[in-house]
Amino acid sequence: MFVIVYLLVVLVFLAIGLCLLISPGTYFRLIDRMARIDLWAKPSSSWDPNAPQWRVLGLAFTLFPLFVIFGAPLLIYLQSPEEYNQRIRSHHHSASWGAVILWLFFFALGIGFLVKPLAVLDRFSPRKLSAEPDAQRHTYLLRILGGLFLLISIFGIWVQLLRYFRH
Q: How many CB atoms lie within 10 A of CB 20?
């Protein structure tokens, strides 16, 4: 079950990366359409949805999941092909500390969305959403998202630590 969720999260990162790499403006228009707001797709003096920095971020978001999926097996294989074959056939699995760090990031993000949702959103949005008249609606939705991040990250950390202490 954990492997399936892990791969789904990695595929989400890959999809976002490919969208930003291929056409960042279209990606931001899609986000606007799904959120039913007009915030990300319009260029302004401090925001350009088609800026080259978004393609670089897309490249990073594309390379990260590829490294997460193929990096560890490739590193083990390059160090020792015999050890690689033993790990493939072994039933002993321990905790992934990289996954624990990723879950801690989502834990901190969930706490941030629960405590100060508009401050976290203002940090990453092109304009200050806390100044808009319907900011309370954003706060409500962000707190729900923060609660989900918090619960899912606690579960992920619990699974990893359980795997570590069980063996």
A: 22
Distances (CA, A) of 60 to 15, 24, 52, 126, 152: 12, 13, 13, 20, 24
CA-based R_g, the chain, Å: 19
Number of neighbouring beta carbons within 10 Å of residue 105: 12
- 29-86 pLDDT, tens digit per residue, is 877 777 777 766 677 766 777 888 888 888 988 888 888 777 766 776 677 766 655 6
The answer to whether 127 and 44 have CB atoms below 8 angstroms apart is yes
Single-letter code of the amino acid located at 34: M
Length of the chain: 167
Long-range contacts of 150-156 (CB under 8 A, 24+ apart): 150/107, 150/110, 150/111, 150/114, 151/110, 152/106, 153/103, 153/104, 153/106, 153/107, 153/110, 154/107, 156/2, 156/5, 156/99, 156/102, 156/103, 156/106
pTM: 0.47
